[in-house]
Specification:
The protein is an alpha/beta fold. It has a single domain, classed as Dihydrofolate Reductase, subunit A. The protein has seven helices and eleven strands. The strands form two sheets. Strands 5-6-4-3-7-1-8-11-10 form a nine-stranded mixed sheet. The protein has a two-stranded antiparallel sheet with strand order 2-9. Residues 3-182 form the Bacterial bifunctional deaminase-reductase C-terminal domain.
Length: 206
């Protein structure tokens, strides 16, 4: 049965993205600081369809395992707009459901990625993603506001956080506005690494 998960990098002071996000400034320009551990791994570049990365270690194993368990994605319009012009074709290799008020026909890419544009809320996106996932997990890709909506609706089963050893000082916090009494939270795994600390949490709705 599908789990609802998210997998996000943050700074040591809790920021998911920087200030002034736009398609010309994805993630507010802080991706290199938060995600350096990922860019260092061959597994990440393999996923994009390119050669790259200096290492193929435990971090890379984590990337491959997360990719393998994911059967569908949900994301917000803002994240989609930041990535649409730069993402390689067939990046996600699965159905992606974009939460938006814009009415738009599905974007069918060469390969196995299709973007669907959902106008009637997170529950509708989740129902459609469950059908696409075929028992694999559904990953709430971002941005922070979209993740917060799913958390506050009590829909998340598990999440992974990768804490980069950097202070950003300002930006968009991942856990702003979260209902603090929605879940019982259990630490499932802590994996140290040179460039980040991986944390996996299990959530049980109260």
């Amino acid at each position: 049965m599908s789990k609802i998960i998210f997998d996000s990098g943050i700074s040591l002071d809790g920021f998911f993205a920087g200030d002034n996000r736009s398609p010309k400034n994805p993630m507010g320009g802080v991706s290199g600081q938060i995600h350096s551990w990922m860019f260092n791994q061959k597994a990440f570049w393999e996923y994009l369809g390119f050669e790259g990365g200096k290492e193929d270690g435990l971090d890379g194993k984590f990337i491959r395992e997360t990719i393998e368990r994911t059967g569908a994605f949900i994301m917000g319009k803002r994240m989609f707009e930041e990535g649409e012009i730069v993402w390689p074709n067939d990046l996600y290799k699965a159905d992606v459901y974009v939460l938006t008020h814009e009415k738009r026909e599905p974007w069918v890419q060469d390969g196995t990625t299709t973007f669907y544009f959902i106008n009637d809320g997170i529950e509708s996106a989740l129902d459609k993603a469950r059908q696409s996932a075929k028992g694999k997990d559904i990953r709430i890709q971002g941005g922070a506001n979209t993740i917060q909506q799913f958390l506050n609706a009590g829909l998340v089963d598990e999440f992974f956080i990768h804490i980069a050893p950097v202070f950003l000082g300002s930006g968009i916090r991942l856990f702003d506005g979260i209902y603090k009494d929605k879940y019982d939270i259990q630490i499932e795994e802590v994996i140290p690494s040179d460039l980040t600390t991986h944390l996996r949490y299990k959530l049980t709705k109260r």
